[in-house]
C-alpha cells in the first residue's frame, strides 16, 4: 500500500526514530510496552518519509504523499483486534438527537456524514487513494500494519443494535460502533495477517540519565519564534452567519457582474492590529504572496479591500473554485450557509507564514469553533 513501496533508507530512518522515542518510555509509563504519543508518531512519519503534514487541518487524514492520503494511528496491539476512534460529530449533535430511538436512520445519517468528510478530505488534499497506517505496540516491540480506508457502504449496513449507550453496526467490510454520549464513531481494526514489519524496542531503565547527558552537551539554542500563524473565519464573525453577498458568497454581491466562483476570506480588523507584521499589509503598496493549498497547488494571493479586510487569490475565482466546488461541493448558484459549514465541521482556516523573505504562506482548514478560540486567546 504505502510502507512497502518506500525506500529502505526511509523505512530504516522511520524505525530508528521510533525506537529512540520508545526507549524513553519510562518517562511516562512503567509498562513493558513502548509508550508513544500520537503527535510524536505523526512527526516521525512525516519527517522520515518526507510526507505532507495535514495534522493541523481538521480533515480525515494526517499525512499524504504521492496522491496517497494516510490516517495515522498508534495503539496497544493486545490481541490485534480493537475498536479505535475514527470521527467525531459534535457539530451535528442537534441533528443526531432528532432521530431519537430510530437507530437505523441515525446510523445511516452518521455513515453519510462520514462518507462526505472522506470525500471532502480527498478534495482538499488532491489525493485519490486513502489508507490507515497503524503502529501498534506490544511487549518491547512495535508493529507496522496498513489497511484500506473505505467509505461505509450504505446499502450493506446491517446488524444495527443498541447496547447501553452504544449503537453497533457493520457493512460488508468493517464493524463499527457509535457512542451516543460522545458523538464518536469507532471502527474495529483486525490486524490478523496485516503486519508488514516489526522491530524490537529496548526501554531504558533510567531515561533521566539520557536527558542529563543531553543537557551537558554543547547545544546551540534556537531563539527564533518559528512559523507564524493566524486563524480567519469563513463566516461573518459579527453575527456568526455566512453573509449573502460577501465572503464565500461574494459572487452574489450586488453591483457589477461577478464570476460564479468569486469569493474572499474575511480578515477581521483586530488581526492587523494584533499581528501587524503577519501580512506586511500596506494599502499604497499591496504586495502579493504565494499561498500553498493542502493539495500542493500554489496560488498568487493578496490582502485587499478597504482596510485590508479580505484575502483573495489572483485570479479571484481560483480560490473560489477550489473552496466552493472541490471542497464544499456547493452547486453553482447556491448560497453557502452556516449550517453547511457545521455539517462539514469546518468554519475557519489557518494561515501559516512559512518563509518571511519570499512571502510564502500555507492555508489549512480547521474545525468549527477554532476562530472563536483564537479570538478569545489573542484579542
Short note summarizing the structure:
This protein has 379 residues and is α+β, with helices and mostly antiparallel strands.
Provide an overview of this structure.
The chain has 379 residues and is of the alpha+beta class. The protein folds into two domains: 3-216, no CATH class; 228-378, no CATH class. The protein contains nine helices and 18 strands. The strands form three sheets. The chain has a seven-stranded mixed sheet. The protein has a six-stranded mixed sheet with strand order 1-2-3-5-6-11, with helices on one face. It has a five-stranded antiparallel sheet with strand order 4-10-9-8-7, covered by helices on one side.
Task: Lay out the secondary structure.
Elements: H1 8-23, H2 38-49, E1 52-53, E2 63-65, E3 68-76, E4 81-88, H3 93-97, H4 103-125, E5 129-138, E6 141-148, E7 158-163, E8 166-170, E9 175-179, E10 184-190, E11 195-200, H5 207-216, E12 228-233, E13 265-266, H6 269-274, E14 289-292, E15 298-304, E16 310-313, H7 316-327, H8 338-344, E17 348-355, E18 360-366, H9 370-378
Parallel strand pairs: 3-5, 14-18
Antiparallel strand pairs: 1-2, 2-3, 4-10, 5-6, 6-11, 7-8, 8-9, 9-10, 12-17, 13-16, 14-15, 15-16, 17-18
Helix pairs in contact: 1-2
Amino acid at each position: 500500500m504505502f510502507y512497502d513501496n518506500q525506500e529502505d533508507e526511509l523505512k530504516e530512518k522511520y524505525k530508528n526514530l521510533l525506537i529512540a522515542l520508545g526507549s524513553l518510555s519510562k518517562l511516562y509509563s512503567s509498562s513493558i510496552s513502548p509508550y508513544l504519543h500520537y503527535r510524536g508518531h505523526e512527526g516521525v512519519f512525516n519527517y522520515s518519509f518526507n510526507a505532507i503534514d495535514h495534522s493541523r487541518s481538521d480533515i480525515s487524514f494526517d499525512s499524504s504523499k504521492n496522491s496517497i492520503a494516510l490516517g495515522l494511528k498508534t495503539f496497544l496491539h493486545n490481541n490485534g483486534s480493537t475498536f479505535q476512534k475514527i470521527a467525531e460529530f459534535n457539530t451535528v449533535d442537534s441533528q443526531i438527537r432528532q432521530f431519537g430511538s430510530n437507530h437505523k436512520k441515525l446510523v445511516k445519517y452518521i455513515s453519510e456524514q462520514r462518507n462526505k468528510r472522506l470525500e471532502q478530505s480527498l478534495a482538499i488534499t488532491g489525493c485519490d487513494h486513502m489508507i490507515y497506517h497503524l503502529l501498534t505496540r506490544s511487549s518491547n516491540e512495535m508493529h507496522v500494519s496498513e489497511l484500506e480506508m473505505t467509505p461505509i457502504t450504505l446499502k450493506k449496513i446491517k446488524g444495527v443494535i443498541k447496547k447501553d449507550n452504544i449503537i453497533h453496526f457493520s457493512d460488508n467490510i468493517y464493524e463499527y460502533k457509535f457512542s451516543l454520549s460522545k458523538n464518536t464513531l469507532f471502527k474495529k481494526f483486525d490486524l490478523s495477517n496485516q503486519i508488514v514489519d516489526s522491530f524490537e524496542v529496548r526501554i531504558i531503565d533510567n531515561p533521566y540519565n539520557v536527558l542529563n547527558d543531553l543537557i551537558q552537551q554543547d547545544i546551540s539554542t534556537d531563539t527564533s519564534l518559528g512559523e507564524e500563524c493566524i486563524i480567519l473565519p469563513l463566516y461573518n464573525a459579527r453575527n456568526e452567519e455566512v453573509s449573502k453577498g460577501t465572503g464565500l458568497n461574494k459572487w452574489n454581491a450586488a453591483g457589477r457582474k461577478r464570476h460564479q466562483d468569486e469569493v474572499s476570506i474575511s480578515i477581521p480588523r483586530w488581526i492587523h492590529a494584533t499581528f501587524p507584521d503577519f501580512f506586511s499589509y500596506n494599502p499604497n503598496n499591496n504586495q502579493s504572496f504565494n499561498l500553498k493549498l493542502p493539495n500542493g497547488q500554489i496560488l498568487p494571493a493578496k490582502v485587499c479591500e478597504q482596510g485590508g479586510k479580505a484575502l483573495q487569490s489572483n485570479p479571484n475565482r481560483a480560490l473560489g473554485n477550489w473552496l466552493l466546488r472541490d471542497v464544499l461541493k456547493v452547486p453553482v448558484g447556491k448560497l453557502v450557509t452556516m449550517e453547511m459549514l457545521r455539517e462539514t465541521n469546518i468554519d475557519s482556516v489557518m494561515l501559516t507564514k512559512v518563509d518571511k523573505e519570499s512571502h510564502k504562506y500555507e492555508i489549512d482548514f480547521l474545525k468549527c469553533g477554532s476562530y472563536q478560540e483564537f479570538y478569545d486567546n489573542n484579542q
